[in-house]
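Q: Could you fold this chain for me?
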Amino acid sequence: MPGKGKRKGQSQSRGKKQKKPEVDILSPAAMLNLYYIAHNVAGCLHLRGFRWPGATKSKKGKNKP
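A: Sure. Below is the predicted structure, expressed as structure tokens.
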């Protein structure tokens, strides 16, 4: 039956994690991107991962009554 054999082409073992390259969030390209997606300073920090305990969580797919 097709699809029941061993998978070919897996070059990484399951236990290892790939290292993410360190990204400069203040680079000109990152600033230009942020200019288009953030509306204020709080939004900028939230998108960059600097969240605070009192921040509201976004609801994906919220229904409009």
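A (continued): Residues 28-37 form the longest helix (10 residues).
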